[in-house]
Amino acid sequence: MTPQESLYESYEKIRGSTYEDILDTIFNKSPRDFEHLVVQLLERMGYGGKVKDAGKVTQASNDGGIDGIIKEDVLGLGRIHIQAKRYHKDNTVGREEIQKFVGALAVAQSNKGVFITTSSYSKGAIEYANSLNGNTTLVLIDGLQLAKYIYDYSLGMQTEQVIEIKKMDSDFWDRMQDSQETLK
Fold first, then answer.
1. Which one-letter DSSP state was computed for residue 170?
2. Could you tell me the pLDDT band of residue 62, with boundaries at 50, 70 and 90?
3. In CA terms, which of 4, 67, 73, 79 is 20 to 30 Å from 101?
């Protein structure tokens, strides 16, 4: 393995370990804090644009199956509704829970939803979400993807070290005339 390949492999191991740390930390926080976290993440990802206070976490109980809302425009005409489930890694979100959320979207008269979990989705849940007709757009984010987004968008993260690797710029060096002399 080249030194560069070793470095990349180490980098991927560090990222993977950090993903696990992110999820473990989320498991130690309250479900309510998880709802706030996912709203913050979507805002960090650019949803809500320049709308002041675009993201909102709904009330803790009797929320109608909606945990958060992101206003996409100043007038609030476009909205993204969020469902957040902080489940153990071994748990799986099934089709029934996705169907309930799609029902909640219909009641909220919304056609955009994001379902985020710390666990994973069953095959039936994924197939159901993919089979929705054009009226409703539903994005499923599992625990690994959630951790990657938190890492990539630096939510609650600090840059520990930046390693800069350089290579020679062949265009720069090719503009110089090669020497005809031999070195002594």
1. H
2. low
3. 73
- Number of structural domains the chain divides into: 1
CA atoms of 109 and 136, how far apart (whole Å): 10
What residues make up the domain containing 149? 3-172
Q: pLDDT tens for residues 63-101? A: 678 999 999 888 878 899 999 999 998 999 999 999 999
Alpha carbon distance 32, 179 (integer Å): 69
Any domain includes 48: yes
Backbone angles phi, psi at 83, to 5 degrees: -120, 130
The structure tokens listed for 33 are 């804090």
**Closest by CA position to 86, among listed 149, 146, 172:** 146
**Greatest extent of the chain over all pairs of C-alpha atoms, in Å:** 85
- Euclidean distance between the first and final Cα of the chain, in Å? 36
Whether the Cβ atoms of residue 116 and residue 80 lie closer than 8 Å to each other? no
What are the start-end ranges of the H helices in 49-121? Answer: 95-107
In the DSSP assignment, the letter for residue 45 is T
Establish if 180 belongs to a structural domain: no
> Other CB atoms closer than 10 Å to residue 157's CB: what's the count?
12
Q: Is residue 58 very low, low, confident or very high in pLDDT (cuts 50, 70, 90)?
A: confident
